[in-house]
Protein 1
Amino acid sequence: MKLTKTAKALALAALVGAGTQLASTDVASAKTADGKWLIYLSLSYSGNSWQSEAANIVKALAATPPFKDTVELVEVISGTDPQAQISDYESMIAKGADGIVSFPISSTALNRVVQRGCKEGVLFFMYDATVTEQCAYNISYITSGFGENTAQALVNALDGKGKIFLSRGVPGNSVDDRHTNGAMHIFNQYPGIDVVAEYYSYWDDRTTQQETAKALAAHPDVDGIWAQAGEYGAIQALLQANPNRLVPVTGENSNGFRLALANPDYQAIGLDGVSAGSPPAQSGFAFKIMMEILNGTREPLPEGQRNIEYPLPWVPGDAVKLCEGDKFENGCNTFPEGKVPSSFVTEVFNPELLPELSLASALEGKPTEGAEIQPLPADAVKAAPNEPGINCRQCEAPENLYHLTKVEPTVQP
Amino acid sequence: MQNEKTIASAVAEQEDNRATAKISGEFVTIAAIFGLTFAMILASRAISPSFGSWSQVETILYLSSFLVFCAFGQGLVILVRGLDLSIASVITLGGVLTASLMNGSNEGFLYLVPAILGACIVVGLISGIGVAYFRVPPFIMTMAVGLIVYSLCLGFTRGTPRGYPAPLLSGFMQDKFLGVPAPVYLLLAFVVFGTILQSYSVFGRKLNAVGNNPLAAYIAGLPSGVLIVSAYAMSALCAGFTGMMLAGYANGATLRMGDSYLLPSIAAVVVGGSSILGGQGNFVGTVGGALLLTALATILTALGIEQGWKTIMEGGVILFALIALREQSFAFLREVLGKRG
C-alpha cells in the first residue's frame, strides 16, 4: 500500500516536471504548487552588515504586496566556498526554481552550472559580484569606477603629493583587484604620490583598524588613506594614534564614516574625503528587474548584453545629510548617530529604484507598512561596459576603462 | 707551568659548563623568543625611520594584548592535552554581547561585565564537560561548540551587530596613563596574574600534573575531570574578555572579530615553548610568542611587498622560531662550539 502511494507520488512528480519543462520554453511560469514564483536567494556568507543588509532588502521586497502573494522566496547560505554554491545552484535548478538572485562567490567557477540552469529556463540575477557567463544578468556597481574616482578625489585633497596607505579588501578577489587597478591607474600618474604601505583589511572595520594601526607605527606621518570597505576603522586608528591629527580618507559607505566626514571637529583637524562604493541596494534592484521580466512587464535582454551598471554612490563630506526618518527622504543619505551601528552600510535605499524600503527592511527584512511594489522607471537599466574576467569572457575592455565620472582632477600630474 | 694552565682552564671550562647547565631549557627558549622579537624591532629601523621607536613598541604591546589574553586560555587547554577551536566564536560572543547589552551607556556596567563573562564561561563549561566526561575529542567538541555559538551570534544579531560598548570601556581603551596606553598596564598585570596562576599556584600545578600524565594524576587523587573542565572554562573566560576588550577598542562588534585570533593563539602558545601535546608550558613564553607574532605582523604590514611574500615570511619566521629557538638547538650549538674550542 505504502509502495503504491510512493509510486503514485513519483509518477505525479514526473508529470508535473514534464509540464514545467514544456512551460519553460516561453519565458517562465509559476512552479510552486500554489501558483507562486519560486525564487531562491543564494548568499555567499552571512556575517557582515553588508551581506545581511543586501539579503534583508530582497526579503523585505518579497514580503511587500503584491510580491507577498506571488513570490515564494527561499534563502540559502553557501559560505565562502564556490563548490558549495555550485551544488546549491544544482539543487535549486532541480527543485524547479524560476529565478535565482545571488551574490556569486566566484566570477568564473559558477559558469557551468549557471549555463545549465539557463537552459532549464532559470533566470540568474547576480548582484554586486559578477559571473562571466553570458546568460546570467550581472547587476553591479563594479564597472562604475570606484577605484579611480576615489583615488582622484584623494589626489585632489592632497594637492597631488604625499604618503598614502592602501587599505585593500580580500587578497585574490576580483573586486579588490578591479578597485585597486583603477586606483593605481590614477596614483601612478602622480609621481608625488607615494604608496608607503598596502595591506589587506578584508572589508572589515576591526581588521582595517588594526592593520592601519600597524602601518601607522611605521609611518605616523602618513598624508592620506585610500580605503575600501572598513574605512571607519582607518579613522579610528588615526584617532587612536593621535587624537589631534586626521588626514584625508576615501572609503565606502559605512554610516560611521559618513558621520565622521561631516563632523566639523574632525574636519578642523584634517579629515577630508568622499564616501563611495558598494551599495547593498543592488540586490533589491536585481530582484525587481527579475520580477518584471518574470511577470512579462519587461523584455528580457539578449545574451551578451546582460551586464547592468548600478550607479556609484558619491557623497563628499559637504554632501552628507542626516535623515530624520527611517528612509532616504529629501536627499538625506546618512543616519544620526545611535540609530544604526557605525558599520551599517548606508546605501540600502534608492528613492528612485527602491521606494518601497525603510530602515526595518534593511535591518530585519521586514516590509514597510503600506508600501507596494512600484514599477522601475523606464530609464532604470543602464548597460555596463565590458570588463574581461569580471563580467565577460574573451571580450575587450573599452579604451577609456578608467575614465573619471564623478570627479575632475584639480591638480595636474 | 704550561700544564697547570691547561688544567686550570679545563677546570674553569668544566665549571662554566655546569653553570650553563643550571639554566633551565625553558628559560633559554623564552629568552631567545624575547631576544628575537627585540632584534626584529631594532632591525626594522632599516625599513622605516619611525620603527624601533617607543611608539612602535607601544603599538605592538597594545595590539598584542588581545592575543595574549586569549592565548593564556588556549595555553591552559593545551596544557591539559586539549585544543580550543571555539575561541574565535567566544571572542565574537563576548564582543557582540558587550556591544548589544551595554548599548552605549555606563548603566549597569558593574553587573553586565560579570554577566557577559559568565555567559562565555558557560560555553567553556559545555566544551569541557564534553571533553572530560563524554570523551569527545577536544578538536571536534570545541569546533562544534564554536559553530553553535557563532550561529547563535548570527541569529541574535540578524547579521548586523548593533550597539556600542559602555563609554567607560571604550574610554579605557583610548586612555593614556603617564604617556602609556592604559591597556598596556592591563597587559602587564595580566601577565603577572597569568604566570602566577599557571606556574606558581596549586591550581596551575594540578593542571600541569594532569597534562603530564593523566593516569598518574588520577592515581594521585587529583580530580582530573574537574580540572580539565576548569581549563576550558578559563579559556572561554579569556576569549570572552578578549572580545570585550576588542569591542572597546573598535567601539563596536563584528561577527568576524574573533577569526584572526584562533590560529595565532595556538601559534603563540607553541612558539612560546609549550608542548602542543600538553603537560609542559610557561605563560611568559606564550607572551613572548604573542609579541613575536604581533611585531612580525607590524613590520610586514609596513613592507611594500606582495601579500604572498608577506605570508611566506610570516610562516618562515614562525618555523624558524619553533625549530631554532629550542633548548635542544642551543645544546647542539654548545656542543659543536665546545668541540671546536
Protein 2
Amino acid sequence: MWIPGIGFKKQAILKVGRLAIFLPLPFVYREKVSMSSLWNFLFILPALLLFLVFGVYPFYKVFQLSLMEWEGLKGLPMTFVGFRNFWEIFTSDKMWWISMLHAGWITFLALTLQNGVALILALMCARDIRGGHVYRVIFYIPPVLSGIVIGLVWSLIYSYPDGVLNTILVKLGLESWTRPWLGDPKTALNAVAFVHMWKGFGWGFVILLAGLQNIPQQIYEAAKVDGANAWQRFIYITVPMMIPVFVLVAILTILGTMQIYDIIAATTNGGPTGHTEVPVTQILSWMGRRRFGYAAAEGVVFGIILLLSARVLFMVSRKLRQD
Amino acid sequence: MKRGFVRGVVLMCLFPLLAFFVSGCSRVSSSQTAPQDEVVTMWHWLSDKEDLLESLAEQFTKETGIKVKVDVFGPTETYKQKVIASAQTNVLPDIFGVLGDKKDFANFIKVGYVKDLTPYFEQNDGEWLHRFYPDAIKTVSFSKDNEYGIKPGIYGVPLDMVTIQFVYNKDILKQAGLDPEKPPQTMEEFLKAVKTIKEKVGVDGLVTGFGELWLVECMASNFAWNIMGEEKMIATYRGEVKYTDPDWVRVFEVFDKMRKAGVFIPGIVIKSNKEAERDFARGKTAFAFNGSWCVNVYKHMNSNLHFGTMLPPKISDANPVGVWGGAGTFFVVNGKSPRAEKAIEFLKWLTEKDQQVRFVRDANSLPAVKGCEEFLAPEVRGFLKAMNFMYHPRNFPVQEDPLVVDTFCRGIQGIIVGEKTPKDVAEEVQRVKDKQLKKRARR
Amino acid sequence: MTWTSLYYRAQRFLDYTFTYFVLTFVAILCLYPLWWMFITGLKTDETAFIGLGAIPPHPHWENFYIAWTKGHFGMYFFNSVFYTVVVVFFVVLFSSLAAYAFARLEFPYRRFFYTLLIASMMIPVPGAFIALYVLIDKLGLINTRLGYILPLINAGLPFGIFLLKTFFDKLPRDLEDAARIDGCSRLGIWWHVALPLARPALAVVIIFNTLNVWNEYLLAMLILQDKAKMPLMRGLMVFRGPHSADYALLMAATTITVIPVILVYILMQRHIIKGVTEGALTGI
C-alpha cells in the first residue's frame, strides 16, 4: 500500500518496518515440522485467522498513524513526522503524565483497598456460612450495570448538599465534612476511584474465593493440632498458598484499572480542572482536537507501558513460584 | 465411526461460517444495485426525534414520490465517530450532519463530502435563502477570505436555532422581594440579587454545566464581547493581542468576583448540562445559564416551574452585551451523492413553514425560518428576542486554536474552584497560545 | 456449663454476627443502584430524582410496557439474543480448540503464536475504530451481521484461550491416553475428554462474553445501519436525546436490558467458582 504525501525514502522505511514483524520467527521456531504437526495447526487456525485479520491490522494501523500528523479525514494530507509525536509526549505533554499518575493512583488504590476488601469478603464467604451463594451472586451485580446507571446513581449519592452521603454525614454530626465530593479538586479523584473499586471488586472476590476453596482443608486441621491460632494460620498457610492468585488478580486489576474510562465519562468527565483526567480521556480529547496521529502515539506509549508492567508481574510471579 | 464424528464437527463449525459469508456478501451487492439508488438516506443524531423525522419523511414521500430513509445514531459522540469512520470509505449517506467546530466543517468540505448549496439557496431570487434568519445562515456559510481557504458560500441547511442565555426562577426572585419581571441587568445588580436571594430564600445563585468546557467558553466569550468587543477578540485569536491584556484579565476577574460572591452552586465545575438543568428545574438555584433547548427540558422536569430569560449581566458600557447564537441543528448534502438533487428537495421541503413548525414545536426549539413566532411558547419567544444581541465566535474569520480554548476554559474552572488566580490563568493561556503560534509558523 | 464454653459461644456468636453484618452491608451497597434503577423506572420524569429509594406512592408500572414498545425492544431483543448466542458459541468453539492445541499438541511457532494472542489482551487501542471500520469495509461487511459478529468473536478470543489453556494444562494425561487407546482421534479427545472436564472454565468464558456482547453498543452503531439489525442497546437511545432525557423511561428500559444478564449469571455462578479455581489459578 502506498501512503500518499510522503517521500520514497520514508516509504521504503515503512515497508521494511512492516516486514520487521516477521523477524523473530526464525529464533522462536526450533521445532521440526511434520505432517501431523501441520494437522495440529488446524486447531488454532480459526482463532489465528480472525486474530490476524481483526487484531493485527488495526494495531499496525495505529502504529503507522503514530508516526503521522493527520486530521482524521481521508483526503486530508497525512504527513510523515517520524517520532515527533513521541518526542512531544515525552518532553512537553505534562497533562498526559499527570493523567498517567491519576490512573496509577487509582490502580494503587484498587490493588490495595479493593483487593483487600475482596479478600476479607472472600475469607468470610469461604467459611461455608448459610446463604453464602446468595452473597456471591450479589457481589457480582455491579459489573453487570452499565456506565450510565452507575454514573447517575453515584453522582446522586455524592451530590451536594442533599445527596445520600452528605445527608448521612449531617446526621452523624459531621457537618464540616460535607462537600460536593466529585466537584472538589481534593476529593474528586478518590471519589471516582471508590466508584471504580465498587464496580470492580466482584471479579477479584470471585477469583480469591475460588483460590481459598482450593487450599486443602487438611493443612488447616494439621496446623490447628499444632496449636497455631487463626492469625498464624492465615499468615503461614493462606498467604503463601494464595500468591499465584494474588498475582493473577493483580494483573487483571492493573489492566482493568489503567484503562478506566466509562465511569469517569459518566461522572466527572475529567474534571474538576483535570483532576480526574486519565489516559483514555486524554487520547479521546486529542482525537477531538483532530490530532489523530498524536492520539495514536499516546495509545502506543500507553500500550507499551501496560505490556511492560504485565511482563514484570509475570516475571515476579515466576520468581515467587520458584521459591 | 470416529472419523464420521470428526467430520461432522468440522462441518458443523464451517457451515454456519460459510453461510454467514455468503449471506453477508449477497447483502452488500444487493445494496449497490439500481432500485436502492432511488432512496435518499439521511443520518441524524436527534435520537429523541426519531419518530418525528420518520413521519415527516413518510409525508414527503406521499407528497412527492421520493423515498427517504431516516436512520438515527446516538448519542452525539457516537454519531460523530460514525460519520468520521464512514467518511474514510465513502459510505456516507446523502444527507448527514457535521458535528464539531468550524474547522471540522471546513475539512469535510475540503475532501468533497459537502455540496456547495449556494446556487440552490439563490434560485428564484433567493426564495429559499430569505426563509431563514440571517444568523442561522451565518453558521452554515463561509465568508470571503476565511482562514481555511474554502470557497465562500452556503454549505448547510439549518433546521433550528440555538441561543444561549441566562434564565431565572421567577418564584425565587419573588420570594426574595425582587421584581420577577425585572431581572438584574448589570453585574453589580446580579451579584446583589444573588446575595439577597441567598440571605432571604437560602438557595444558591447560579447553576450551569461548567463540566462541559464549551459552556465555560460561551460565558467567558459573552463577557469578553461586552468588555472588549469583536475586533479585539479577533485580534487576540490572530495573535496580535495577548491574553495578558488588561481586558482579558478583567474577563477572568469577573469569574473570580462571582466566585467570591458565592454565585456558583458547589460542584459546578463538574456538572454536565443535564445535571445542571435538573438543579435549576428543582429550584436549587435562582439563575441558570443555558441554551434555548432548556425550555422543553425544564417543562418536562417540573411543569410548575416559572422562569424567564435575561441577557448576560452587563459589565462594561463600552460595548453591547452579546449572546451566542446561530443554527443549532443543521444538515449537509453529500457532495459525492448521485441523489443530491432529491436530497436538496427534501431539505427544502423540511424548511417550509409547516414542517418547521412541526419540527420546532415538538421540542420547543427555536425555528430557523421566519414567521413561526406565533406558534411558540412564551419562554421560547424570550430566547428568540435575544436574536438582536446574537453573535458567535465560530462566525469570526479566525478561529482560536482548540488547545488554547481548552486551556482557557480549564483555567476559568480553576478560578471557580479557587485553585488559580486570574493572572495565573492569563499567563498560562498566553504561554500555550505562543507555543501554538510558533508551531503554526513552522508549518 | 463452664465459663470457657460460654466464652467460646459468645465469641462465636459475635464472630458470626460481625461476618453477617459486613456481608449484608456490602450486599446493600451493591444492590442499591440496581434497586434505585428499578424504583426510578416506576416514577415519572418529574419525580425521577426525588427521594432516595422508597417505592413511590403511585408506581407507574406501565413505564415498563411503554419502554418496551417505544424502544422497539421486541425486535432488538431477538437480534441481541442471536448475536450473543452466535458470538459466545464461536468464542467457546475457537478458543477451546486453540487452547487445547496450545496445551497439548505440537506444531510450528506454537509459543510465538500463544504469546502474540495473549499480548493482544494487554494492548488497548482506543481510537483504532477508524482502522477497524476501513478493514470491515474492505471485506465488504459494512452493515452486515457478519461484520458485527466477527470482530466481537475476535475480541473474546484472547481471554478465552488464556483461561482455557491453563485449564487444559492441568488435565490428567492418563485420561487422554486411555481415550487414544480406544481409538479417539485428536479432535475426538478434545470433544469427548477435554471439553466435558473443562465445563466450569467454559462457564466463565460464557458469562464473560455474554456480558460483553449483550452490553456492546459502539461497534453496532459503527458497523450496522439498518434498524432491523441493531442489538438491544440501540433501544435505549430513544430515551436520551442530545439535550433531553426521559430518565424514568430510560431506567425502566435499562432494567429490562439488565435482567437477562443477571439471569445468565445466576445460572452460571456455581460453575464460575469452580471454573476460576481450576482454570486461572495454576496459570501464571
Protein 3
Amino acid sequence: MAALLIQLGLPDWLAWAITAGIAAALILNVIAVGALVFIWAERKIAARIQDRLGPTRTGGRFGWLQSLADGIKLLAKEDLMPEGADGLLFRLAPYVSFCASFCAFLALPFAFDVVAQRLNVGVFFVIAVLGLEVFGVILAGYASASKWSLFGAMREAAQVVSYEVPLGMCVVVPVMLAGSMDLVTIGEKQSGWATNWYLFHDPFTFVVFWVYFTCAVASVNRAPFDLAEAESELVAGFHTEYSGLRWSFFFMAEYGSMFLVSALAAILFLGGWNGPIPLATLIGLSDGAGETAHYLARLLGCVNLLGKATLGVLVMMWVRWTLPRLRIDQVMTTCLKYCTPIAAVMFAGAMLWTLAFPGGLFHGGRRPAGEVREGWLSAVDAQPSLVARSAAVVAAAGVADRAGLRSTVSAAPAADGVAVEGVGAREDGGAWGAP
Amino acid sequence: MSGGSWGAGGVAALIAFGPFSEPVTVSHYMVVGAVMFVAGIVCMAVKRNALGVLMGIELVLNGANVNFVALSSPYLQANGPGLGLDGQAMALFVILLAAAEAAVALAITLNFYNNHATVDVDRAEDLKG
Amino acid sequence: MTGHSLLGAALPMVAAINWHSLFFLLFASLACGFALAVVFTTNVVRMALHLVLSLAATAGLFFLANAEFIGAMQLMIYVGGTLVLLVFGVMLTAQQPFVSIRTSARDQVLAGVAGAATLAVLLVAVLSVGRWGLPASGEVDAPTATPLGMALLGVRVDAAGGGHSGFLLPFEIVSVHLLVVLVGAAYLARAKRRRTPRPVDVLASADPPLAPRPAVAVPGGVTRGASRSALVGSGDAAGGGA
C-alpha cells in the first residue's frame, strides 16, 4: 500500500502516514461495526436459545438496526458520575480498556500479509496487550467508589492474572510447532487442506485448542466466567456506575477482545486464512497469477479468517446462554487445578509427538519440505557453500540438533546474520499445500 | 508572506531542524534511564506507603533495563552492537526477577497489613532497639 | 496563495524529520514524565496508573531499539502481571477511598536534593562517554527474538556472541528461583487462623456504613480467608438476563 503511494509520487512520510491512517480506520471499523453486529447477533441468539424472538422491529424484519438504535440512545444519555468517585480515573478507565483492545489488533493478520504491523513477536504482543485491558476494568472498579464495582474489579484482576498462565502455555504449542512467533508465519505454515491445521496436528494440540478456548473465554470475561459483572450478585460489577458512551466503550472493548481471541484461535489452530479446502489455490489464485489474483486471494483469506473468528464468537455466545455462571472459587479451581496442568502436559506431549512424527498426525514421519525456522536460517540456506547447505540439511533433518545449528551459523559469515524477515514462508506454503 | 505563515514556517523549521532530525544514540536512552532511575530512588526515599516504595523499586529496575537494551541495540551505536544479545538477556532476567520480587514484596506487605492494619513503612518499628 | 507557499515550505521540512527520533522523543518524554509523576503523586492508585503508563512507554522505547521480545515481555510481565498485582495490593490495603500517606516536608526536600545530585552525576557520566554519542552508521534489521531464545537454551547464533556461551544456567536458576518465589509468596500470603479480633475488624465496626472499605472486605490474603465469603457471593447465579 505504502509502496503503491510512493510510486504515485507522494513523499515517503506522507505515504506512510496515509497508509497508517487507513489501517487504523479499518481496524477501528472492524471493532465498532463488529461490536454492533455481534451485539445484535447475541440478542438474537439469546432469544432463540430462550425460545423468544429477540429484536424484531427496528430496521426491518430481523431487527438488525437494533444495535444502531441502541448506540444512538447511548449517545444521548446523560453522563453520570457518582459522587465521591475519582473523576480522572473514572473518565479514563473505559478508554484504557478500549485502547488495549484496539492496539492488540495492530499485530493481527487478516490474511497473508494483510496486517497493520507485522511483528516478529506477534503472538506474544497480542496476548500481552490484551492483558492490559484488565487495567481499565480495575481502574473503573476502583474509581467508581462503589462496592459492587470494587468487587467486580478484584475478581477480574484475580481471574485475568491467573488465566494468563494457561493461556500462555496453550499459545506456546503452535508457536513451537511453527518455530516462529510471527502470526503471519504461523498462519502460512498451515496452508492447504484442513489436515494441515494445527488443530489436527496431533491429539495433544487438539486438546490444547479446547483448553485455549476455555481460557480465552475466561480472559475476556464472558460467561460462564463473567464474575466481574455477575449481575445476579454485583448489580453489574465493574461498570455498575457507568452509563452512556463510556459504558458502550467497555462493551466495544469486550466484543473487540472476543473477536480478537477468536481470530487468534483461528490463526493458531484453525489454519487462519487458509480454508479447510485450499480454494484460492484450486481456482488458480496463487501468487504467481498476477496482481488481481493476488488481491482476490487476499480477499478470500480475509473472508475465511473473519468467518472463523465470527464462528468462534458465536460459540462463545452459545456457551454464555447455555452454561450457568461459576463461583469465584470454581473459576480459580478450573484455572489452577485443571487448565494449567492439562496445558502443561499437552505442551510436553506435543513436543514429544513433534520429535517422533515431525509431519504431524496426517503426514506421519514425512517432514514437509522447506522447513525454515526463521529468517536467519533461510539466509544461511541461500548461501551456496557446501558446508552451509549440509549444515542446513542437518538442522532440517533432525531435531534442532545443537552441533548442527552451531555449524550452520558459524558457517555463515557475520553479514549473513542480517536476516530477511519471513523469507521462505510463502515457499513453504506451496509445499504444505499439497495434500 | 503574512506573519502567520512565518510563524508556522518557523515551527516547521524548528520541527525539521531541531531535535527531531538528530539521530537517536545510546546517550539518549541513557538519559531516559537515568531519569527513571533517579525518579525511582526518590520514590523509594519519599514514599511512606510500602506499595509506593515497591513502585520506586520497579522504576529503578526499569531504568537499568533501558540502559541494558540501549547498549545491546545495533540501531544506536556506531561500532556495531555493544553488548549484543547479552544486554537483552540481562534485561530479560531483570524483568523476571522484578516480577518475582514484586510477588514476594506484595505478600510481605499484605502480611504486614494483616498485623498492623496499615501499609505505612514507618510503622514497622517493632524490632527497633 | 499563502497557504500554498506555506505547504510548499513545510513539506520538505516535514520530510527532513527523522521519524525514529520523533517517536523516540515521544516515548522518552512519556516514560520520563510519568516516572516523575509517580514521585509527585500522593494517591496510590494514581501512582500505579502513572507507573503503568511509564513502563508501557518504556516498552515502546524497547521496540524502537529493535528489542521486540523484551518490549513484549515488558508489556506482558511487568505491565500486565506485576502491576496488576500491585494494584491488587493497593486495593487490598486501601484504608479510605483514594488513600494517600503524606511525607514530611523535610524528608521531601532532602530526597529532592539527593535525587538531583544523583541525576547530575549520572548525566555527566552518560554524556562523558563519547562513543555512546555517535549514531549508528547504516541500517540494520536483525530479528532478535529467535537468537535470544536460542541463547537462553545455551546456543549462541548471533554474530556478536561468537565464542561465548549461552544462558542456559542462568535460565535454569531463574526458573527455580521463580518456583521458590511462587511457593514462598503463597506461604506468606496464606490465611491464618486468629482467635483475637484484628485491629482491622475493630476499625471496621466503628465505621460509617456508606464509605467503601475494600480493606475490610478482603483482609485475609490474595484470594483466601475472610475474603472468600465476600467474594464468592450467591451460588445460584445461573444465566441471568442481558
